[in-house]
Every structure is written in C-alpha cells, then in structure tokens.
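Weekly structure sync, notes
Attendees: PL, DS, HV (note-taker this week)

Item 1: RCK N-terminal domain-containing protein
DS walked through the input record. Source organism listed as Nymphaea colorata. Sequence as pasted into the shared doc:
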Amino acid sequence: AARKLGFPVLYGDGSRPAVLQSAGISSPKAVMVMYTGRSRTVESVQRIRLAFPS
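Item 1 (cont.): predicted structure, written out as tokens:
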C-alpha cells in the first residue's frame, strides 16, 4: 500500500545501520521496526538511534 502511494519501501535487517546506509538513507524521517520479541525490537531501535542521532 505504501509503495502505491509513492513511498519507498525497503526490506532488510534494519537493526544493522549499514543496511539503511547502503540503501541511501542518511537521515531517515521515520523507521518502522517490526519484530515479535521485545528485546530484539529494543536492540534495533537503540542501534538505529546510535547510527542516526538527529
């Protein structure tokens, strides 16, 4: 649905900032994190915040 509305949709391990950077994302406005476990979700958000502090 997002792609049909013109939003870029990327698939990959977002807990790895290198994945986001290799996709050309230097300062994301929003990131959606979806894991089934709370610990993996928290870890991913922490890594993203470290990689993109602003």
